[in-house]
Amino acid sequence: MRAHPRMSVRLRTTLAATAVVAVALGIASAVLAGVLADSLADSATAEAERRAALTAELLTVAPPPAPAAEPRLVVAPDVVVQPAQPGAPAPATPSFGRTERFAVASRPVVTADGAMLVQARASLHPAADALETLRSVLLPGVPALLLLVAALTWIAVGRALVPVSAIRRELADITATDLHRRVPVPHTRDEVRLLAETTNRTLDRLEQAVGRHRRFVADAAHELRSPLAVLRTRLEIAPPQPLAAEALADVDRIQRLTTDLLLLARLDAGEPPEHVEVDLGQVAAEEAARGRPRTDVRVDLRIDAGIVVRGSAEQLGRLVANLVDNAVRHAAGVVTVGLRERDGDAVLEVEDDGPGIPADRHEAVFDRFARLDEARARDAGGSGLGLAIARDIAVHHGGSLAVVGGPPGAVLQALIPTR
Questions:
Q1: Cα(412)–Cα(175) distance, rounded to whole angstroms?
Q2: Exposure of 79 by Cβ count < 10 A (0-12 exposed, 13-18 middle, 19+ buried)?
Q3: Which tens digits make up the pLDDT trace of 343-383?
Q4: Which of 98, 148, 255, 331 fits a 20 to 30 Å CA distance from 188?
Q5: Is the whole-model pTM more than 0.85?
């Protein structure tokens, strides 16, 4: 079962980039709006001061008449002249109201008629209109820009991660039987290329180590065959006695273990199986009918005729033999061997009426040298390689082997393609 991250690197990078740009745009928009507002307000204030100064200069040069009954004189629409009050402060600083949006400037002037106060104002409506226009541009523009940034980041990161996905897929497909494969190295000169090259160097070292291990196992098993054969011959021609019989049984077990190790070494080496037509029904019937130490167990056959697969007859016979041997060792009295065709696969099922295999051990029983506690008590001579070899043979032929039933009892099912 593959474990998928809650949030991919691509999504996290896109969100992070979008968030950073959003914060930057938010700050930039606020600063822009504040600077523009201050600049427009300063411009309005400067305009009001200019009008006040110009009016004061005119009054100084040619003071207008100021009737006593009319204390205020409107010189222009935005300029008012009125007598200065005693103790009046310096010109007022620009002020901004919420009802009247004006910048106001005041300037005292001394004329022939006495001290006068010139008040001028400049409208802030242009500044408000400019800010409103800015907001109308930023409100839809910032989200659109963020969407564009997110889309571009998503595409860019996706393209950058394409080599990583290719490396991951290749590594996921590499098993102990095809360590010669290597991950693709991208043409770019970046960290992804370094990752691919490092991974390939690691696979080189792993292939060499596994190769040395396989050669050692194969050589050791091969070298053991000759002395074991000589020892077996000597024990067989020796005078009958209990000790010799026990030694002969031990030699037989070692020979079987040696043969198993040699077969595993060939399977691990990835040697391609023979591609000849094999009548799997005939092979299954012959192996099921072979004599076994437990004569109290009956082997029933439910084999459909005419099921032909392509592969090695010797290895497929070994697969059937290992499954039947395992079932006979654990059966209470009956073992059933079934063979049928389904959806282009030959379905081989071996069922026994024994105690069965616990659900949490359905995969563990296929580990090498793995045996259940019950199996150790019943059969001290088992090596724990039978089911492991059977699964390797099934996989080697493009099929599978799994526990599909029990307890009580156990049902092991092998699927071998017929095409």
A1: 24
A2: buried
A3: 888 999 999 988 888 888 888 888 887 766 554 444 545 56
A4: 148
A5: no
